[in-house]
Design brief:
605 residues, mainly beta, Hypothetical Protein Tm1070, Chain: A, 3 domains, ten-stranded mixed β-sheet, five-stranded antiparallel β-sheet, 3 helices
Length: 605
Amino acid sequence: MKKLNKALISTAVLAGLYAGNAFAGTEACFEIYKGAPETNHTNGSFGGADCYTTAATPARVAGLAAIVPGSVAYELTKGGANGFQIDLNNVAFRAVPGDAFEGVQIVYIPTTDIPGASRIKVALSGAEFFGNSNQIFLLSPAGDILATSDGVVDGKTEVEFLTQSGVTIPAGTRMLFSKTNGLTSAGATLVPAEYATHVPVGIRTTNTACVDGDSKRSITIQATAARTDGGSSIIGGVSRAEKLIDISPQFYTFLGTATVGQVNAQTKNFDEATIVARSEFVFDGAGNTGLKLRKTELVAPFTFVDRGLATAPAAQVIDLKHTLVAADKLNVKFSTTGDAGSSARFYFYNDQDNTAGATKGALADAITLGANTHGVLDTNYVKDASLFFTRNEFAADAEDGFVPASFGALAPDAASNTVFVTVVQSDTTDPITPLGFNYNVNVESMLDLDGSTLLDHCTKTTTTHNVGINGAVLKVPYSVSGAGNFVRITNEHNQEAEVTVDVFGESVDGTVGARHATAVRLANIPAKSSYVYFVPEIIDAAVAQKNYSGADGAAQTANTGNPLRHTLTFAVTAPKDTVHGVTVQRLSTGNDRVMPVLDQNTWAQ
């Protein structure tokens, strides 16, 4: 057993300082806060029999100081060979940036008397003590040693303290954790300068898994046992667990929701201008001044948050953090769940004009991806992470740099940057290449932080766009270009519907040349009416309008029928539940066979 330092305060002095305190508490308490030890730490003992928290800061006799744990970026906690060491005396742990004193202070307060030679066990959850030279002291408000650790400290999750033999520690005594015993008293009231040699303890933790939005842990401290020299339990010396350190991600990527947009299958747009069907998106602002749904752009704003930065210098967001450097990278890759069309392009823009006027909604400051400004599907791009996390906005733009409401109170003062993920129709000259529809755009991303002691983020996939069409879609998987073969489509809507069709056949490679024709214009269907489209006429229209060649280069040259077989996808500009179809195939026997037509209607077929 270690011998206690001679600096242990005498029984007579303790009795004089704490005469009249309560002796029948039901639990021990902790005060945890950032900055220097509170000045009122010396103004008297805590008078409660159990733990309750008030807004009182500094700590007062009438109540406890509020628990204010330190905060650490999850990305830091991989650490080196000895894990990630957290020095609670670190300069980052300050009540307010710029304060002269730092540290996360731990104050243990029993609510019942602790007789001499008692033993108190204090345990950490989520970490272990480390960097304390195997010695931790519990100091009185006057700076004297009330208890000292017994046995090995560093590398342990639980430490046992031994109080001075023959000296009773009165109920309510505030005992400050320190790995040094250099505090001295200059009288009844200490001033901050006198705490210069007090050093909060050290701990360490280790995480190995990659970081995601749910990577949250807490380091807690708890007095798990208190017993007299004779082995009797001291109820008022045992506490509940209190949070000492909050560990959560510093960086959040792609916070937001997907933009739901539509390809315009009609030949008129919002401004009543005549257009080529499926050459534009449906937009919602006169003069193309919308922010998300634009004539040739579908814009999805997503927010990137760095909790290590603050919107104001005095706003403390996270204490121990990582500062982005040039070697920190964000890996990104675009993909789609369907055919977006050969003219669709995918961009990251760092700015959008939100000011009133003709330029409202205009995008700027594109993040260059590879050799092109836009991204090529299924291609990984490695970009400086700072491009996404650093705010960049129009001078008068109030839209950029917000934290979504769904982010909650996790980072109310964190700095953020909005990146505008955008699908662009790149073809604006005749003949305009039609846009694809009914697909999602996904962005796969991974934040790769430089250094072997940092945790990278997990690869995540974010859906940024849901791209549909303003109408019904009917698919005929199998049709034959022969006499008597037709598709009949019914329009139950009270307005005339425009119709386009996509066609491909059984060629060697339908992606080559014009073997896949898109947006072939067919005759309109009147309101409350049906129209019969004969398959040979559909194929003739595809050849005439798009130079369709899907009937050549057949994959099965021994099968003479394959140049005649085609797959058809119709887009009809009417509400989907008002459109239905049937297809009929004429057999060589002269009989008709009804073939399936697939749709997206909500009613049962």
